[in-house]
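Give me structure tokens for this 173-residue protein.
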Amino acid sequence: MWKPNQPGSNSPSTPEPSRPTPPSPSYEAPRAAAPSTTNAAPGTGEQATIGKSLVVKGEVTGSESLYIDGKVEGAINLPGNRVTVGRNGQVAANIVAREVVVLGKVRGNCQASDRVDIRSEGSLTGDVIAARISIEDGAFFKGGIDIRKPGGTDLKGGTAQAASTTEPAAVQA
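Here you go.
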């Protein structure tokens, strides 16, 4: 027998609200997991992403780190942040940042106040001005390298030709 104190009639209505509820957390879960898998800049935790299907033409400026998996043409100016060019990323731009990580293809000059890192899948064609540079086995690099001390404030002046190389360098596995 049915008693008014039992939630027998409420049982069918309970699954109705619970069905829409699980998609909501599962939708938000990838958002929370995305920053941890893309390694955002230390200390900030914020990172913008240009996806595979996006094409940006013009100047990109801002105050957060940037992950590029699409195409960018123009100029990228993020002086205190990290710019990461993903495996699918294709950049035809001059990059000014604190740190530049290349996993895809970059055509243009890179100016980093800290370091430039070209990973094994990466390709960089252009001159590099940085305090440190790392080129992994299998990476491609063609251009000049100018190592500047981190305390140097004038990154555009100085004797760039004295320290830069004119021969292309290719590192292969």
